[in-house]
Amino acid sequence: MKRLFRKKIGLALGGGGARGLSHIGVLKIFEKEGIPIDIIAGTSIGALVGGAYACGFSPDKLEIKVEEFINSEEFQSSAVKSMAKAFGREGETLTERVQGFLKNQYYLIQMLFRPGILSTDHLQSMINYFIPDIQIQDCRIPFRAIATDLMTGDQIVFSNGSLRQAVMASSAVPGAIEPMRYGEKLLSDGGIVSLIPVNVARKEGADIVIAVAVDRRLRTDEEFKTAKDIYYRACEITSDKLEKYELAEADVVIRPDVMNLHWTSFSRAIDLVKEGEKAARESLPIIQEKRSFISSVINMLNIFKSAQKNL
What is the pLDDT of residue 289? Predict the structure, then answer.
């Protein structure tokens, strides 16, 4: 019997800075296993990876481009790399920790006098490297980028216009990257209101929504000695509650082990891609189960509709 409907799979790629490079690993497994993607909705790094994939870059090509970019002189001398040394310290000597602390305080002081530690120019070069100068509506896979309007607090969903501009707005990490002017709107990271845009993928017609979460889990061994520590913790709790609310609407949740890395830890790209592959591979049984279930439901609806027509 001819099916009247086709089940659609939507992919919601969450924000998390460098941790989102694990999205590439997820996409590698999907392509290898022949899992089709009908709509991609991305926030922040999810918009960058999702947008690059939607416009035609294969996961293997993306992985190569990431390696080339990280090893480039441009990245090695960039402010993002410098921030990684200040905020994302792992296994450092005492001297290195002191240097990192001083840089940390330097960046925090900058936040008191500027709308962002980095100008949009710092992020734009990276976006231009991965995202071609095309319109969103020209992507081979329907794509949506999520940003936040700081003036109204509204979720902004880019469905047309410049792909680069949409990814830029979605990736403007609050405090780190200055917001982007867009008409009367002042746009910042989509993760402020939608860290993992499951709702957008669903609204775009996805029957099955696969969400990929790359945020850091709440740690229970933290010490809260200063007002800054408590403020950051409060923000983390708010984000965690918002994420759980969004993920409740997903059919499948893939959560790569992002090792609690800081969002600037791009030097860990290879490890993150592998973690994405591992998590996606472990999720294959439930994805196939959901696809089979939705197919059964759709077939039953088809039979019901056909029966109604014959009455």
Answer: 86
